[in-house]
Design brief:
By secondary structure, the chain is of the alpha/beta class. The protein folds into two domains: 196 residues, 3-Layer(aba) Sandwich (Rossmann fold); 100 residues, Diaminopimelate Epimerase, Chain A, domain 1 (Roll). 47% of the residues lie in helices and 19% in strands. It is built from 13 helices and eleven strands. The strands form two sheets. It has a six-stranded mixed beta sheet, with helices on both faces. A five-stranded parallel beta sheet has the order 2-1-3-4-5, with helices on both faces. Helix 1 packs across helix 9, helix 6 packs across helix 8 and helix 8 packs across helix 10. The chain is globular and about 60 Å long. The chain binds manganese (II) ion (MN). Manganese (II) ion binds next to loops.
Length: 323
């Protein structure tokens, strides 16, 4: 008798896109889901059995994990199957190696991972599951893309904005702990709305209050440079702080950074909708020179640099941005 493959999903646990992707995979095939951040990708895939059917969602490949990740894919695809669904930059060299490892690639820079996952598995999920893809598209700022727009048009737009933002805010307040994320994946199996899930609206309110307090500090604390502004924050969601700097100071690009006592700054970068800046490229180019790392999308990306390199970073960043 043919042995039935067990299905697993490893997805990004830090945001709505990753959690929605995992929820859609689970709805399609009952996968056991692991919500992880980049530092846990390898140790998680190592636990996946040889003959598994594995989905990996919303986890961009960077040089620090790609080699080991591809090695694990090679192990699994000998007896099992790996589907990699993502929308981050994928280097041609890594893409080739994934294909050579017989990984099924569902990759596009145009739509978020939740929308790509829904498109890929839509025959296996209830029609209502497209609402999860809509939440992902809105909170990943990819709601203007072709497929996302189509899916969103099936719902009341304001309901989607309310529900997706409530969820994103609750995750932000909580620091997107895996336990909370798992609770959401479970509730999404019954297509619960975020407002129905315990604690979501309370945490979202707390986050909104926190945002209000941050807004008050931006005018006094942020430093302005040519075409960008930045500030230090102790807030766990520095991406949202960066967004608010853009709005409060009316600059096209902003970043916020938080000190980590082990000796580095975590940084988050944002560009306004109409900005032509390629933040992911700029950050990926200059951080290695400073002994750090970073990268991501054109309009949203992240980095980590040694804490004695901040001044140097700002100088290099300004030079690249204003080239
Ligand atoms: Mn994403």
């Amino acid at each position: 008798m043919k042995q039935v493959r067990k299905t697993y999903c490893i997805s990004h646990g830090k945001d709505v896109d990753g959690i929605a992707s995992a929820s859609i995979v689970k709805l399609a095939n009952g996968a056991k889901t692991y919500l992880v951040n980049y530092d846990k990708v390898i140790q998680t895939i190592e636990k996946i059995p040889d003959n598994a059917e594995l989905y990996v969602c919303d986890l961009g490949m960077n040089d620090s994990i790609a080699e080991k990740f591809i090695e694990e894919c090679n192990r699994i695809t000998k007896k099992g199957k790996v589907t990699y669904i993502d929308h981050h930059i994928l280097k041609p060299s890594i893409k080739r190696k994934l294909l050579k490892a017989k990984v099924e690639l569902v990759h596009s820079r145009k739509e978020c991972a939740g929308v790509l996952t829904y498109q890929h598995l839509k025959k296996q999920v209830p029609k209502g599951a497209s609402i999860l893809a809509c939440y992902a598209a809105i909170t990943d700022y990819l709601d203007n893309q072709k497929i996302a727009k189509d899916l969103i048009s099936n719902y009341d737009r304001q309901l989607l904005l309310l529900e997706s933002t409530m969820l994103a805010y609750a995750l932000a307040y909580d620091g997107a702990k895996p336990q909370f994320g798992n609770k959401i994946v479970d509730a999404f199996q019954d297509l619960c709305f975020p407002h129905e899930i315990k604690d979501v609206s309370i945490l979202a309110n707390k986050q909104a209050e926190r945002m209000k307090n941050i807004m008050k500090t931006i005018n006094s604390d942020a430093k302005s440079y040519k075409n960008f502004a930045c500030m230090e924050s102790t807030n766990p969601t520095i991406g949202l702080v960066a967004n608010m700097i853009i709005g409060e100071l009316d600059v096209p690009v902003a970043f916020a950074y938080r000190h980590n006592p082990i000796g580095h700054y975590e940084m988050s970068f944002r560009a306004r909708y109409d900005s032509k800046a390629e933040l992911g490229k700029i950050v990926a180019k200059i951080t290695p020179e400073l002994g750090g790392m970073g990268g991501g999308h054109n309009k949203a990306c992240g980095a980590r640099i040694p804490d004695d390199k901040l001044k140097k970073f700002i100088k290099l960043f300004s030079a690249e941005l204003n080239k």
